[in-house]
Input
Amino acid sequence: MCGKHVILVAEDDVDTATMLEELLTLEGYEVELTATARAVLDALAERRFHAVLLDLTMPGMTTDRFVSEIEGLGTPSPLMIFSARLPHEMQAIAERLHAAALIPKPVDIDVLLGTLSKVVLGSLGSPGSTDIDR
Output
């Protein structure tokens, strides 16, 4: 959909993914859901997103390998890591991936929406990033 900010939600828990999709759609975002590590990597390789809500623990590969694969893509999409991992673990991975934000689980909806808004606006402010290619 032209004009909408496109968000990739990488979450394997069906209830959480559904809640995020409904919430973000109501907020005016276009949402693409992925539920496996391979699907996330394929989506990131295929296109750029205004933001990626990224759960670090996804079916199909270990977290270390998943992080390495994402790192290897050099994705220009801003990553927002959301995880129930310990804060120091999240911070180390976020630094490695140059993540735009960390959101601890359970997710505080107000924090999520506020942070997402800032990340999306930041992605729009960088040169040549006003249009997301499909």
Summary: The longest strand covers residues 6-10. Strands lie at 6-10, 30-34, 51-54, 79-83, 101-104.
